[in-house]
Amino acid sequence: MGIKFSNNAATTLSAGINDSVTSIAVADASEFPDVSGAADYMYLTLANISNIEVIKVTSVAGTTLTAVRAQDGTSPSAFSLGDACELRVTAGVLTDALTERQAASAALDAVSGSNTGDEVAATVTVPGIVELSTSSENVAGTATTSPTVAGVKEMITTHGSGSPIPLILALG
Asked: Least enclosed by CB within 10 Å: which of 12, 43, 50, 90?
C-alpha cells in the first residue's frame, strides 16, 4: 500500500479537462501502476506547452483516472485532448517514498521476538502489523491490522542452535 511507481509510463489525455475536474480520461492507462489498494496512489504530471500540473491519482477504472488536482506546489490548469500525462519523478514522489521508508524502518525497529529454546520454534512480532511463528517447517502468521507500509522485508530470527530461521514479512 502507498505510493506506486512504474518506469517510463506515459499516455495522453483522450478528452480536454478544465481546472477542476477530478475524473480524467486518458488514451491508455496500461503502463501505469496498479493503484487498486485502499491506500494506493501515484503522482502523474499533466503537461502542455504552457502548463504543468502534478496530480495524485487514487484510482484507475479502465482509462479513467480519479485524481486530486494541483499537487506538489502546482496550480490547477485546463488541458486539451492529446496533452501529456506522464509518471515523472517529482519532489512529492520522493518525499512520500522517503516517508514510507521511514515508517517501515520504525515498524521494524519495534520488532520483538521470542524463542522457546527449541531449535525449531520462534515467534516474531511487528506491533500493529503482524505476528509470525515458526514451528518445525511451518510458518504461521496472523495480521493484527491492515499493513500501512508497502514492500517485502526479510527478517531473521535465531533459534536455540544459532542457525537462522528466515521469515518473510509482507508489509503491504
From this structure: 50
CA dist., res. 110 & res. 128, Å (int)? 10
Q: What is the pLDDT of residues 70-110, one digit of tens each?
A: 999 999 999 999 999 999 999 988 888 888 777 777 666 66
C-beta pairs of 115-121 under 8 Å, 24+ apart in sequence: 115/157, 115/158, 115/159, 115/160, 117/160, 118/159, 118/160, 119/159, 119/160, 119/161, 119/163, 120/159, 121/159
Q: How many CB atoms lie within 10 A of CB 61?
A: 10
Take residue 59 and report the three cell numbers written for it.
484510482
Amino acid identity for residue 2 in this structure:
G
Q: In terms of residues, how long is the chain?
A: 172
Which pLDDT tens digit goes with each residue over 28-39?
Answer: 999 999 999 888
| SS3 assignment, position 135 | strand
Burial readout 90-122 (b: 16 or more C-beta within 10 A, e: otherwise): bebbeebeeebeeebeebeeebeeebeeeeebb
Write the DSSP assignment of 57-110 as a string of letters: EEEEETTEEEEEEEETT-----B-TT-EEE----HHHHHHHHHHHHHHHHHHHT
Q: Other C-beta atoms within 10 Å of 132: how many?
A: 20
Q: What local confidence, expressed as pLDDT, does residue 11 receive? A: 98
134 has a pLDDT exceeding 80:
no
